[in-house]
Specification:
145 residues; 23% helix
Amino acid sequence: MASLWRAATGLTEKADDHDGVEFWSNPERTGWLTKQGEYIKTWRRRWFVLKQGKLFWFKDSAVTRASRARGVIPVATCLTVKGAEDVLNKQYAFELSTRSETMYFIADSEKEKEDWINSIGRSIVQHSRSVTDSEVVDYDSNNKN
């Protein structure tokens, strides 16, 4: 059931679900964050890699082609990224929200927190579903003057 839920929400724990993204090469952003577990709500320090609209996490920072991600979040499924110190009562905390879930992270400094929020926010905008030509309403074609 959990895998069905993950498939429906676009979230996945599958280590090989990187859609051909070469996460080991020239990422947009990398760094250590403390992440709350999905099922057991303990806090664990993980190495995060943001590249091509996907936020991967690993156990350690030595990421190579052979590395297996512990998880990945497609940022196109995310609606907001914002500070969450007041929610968690923890310094340098931020949250990443989808329609169905809010994930919490803790950075090592205020600057790191702001840099992650900015990078993820930029990626959300770049990779979110944009309006396609077929969805654009041509109001002029309805006016037969």
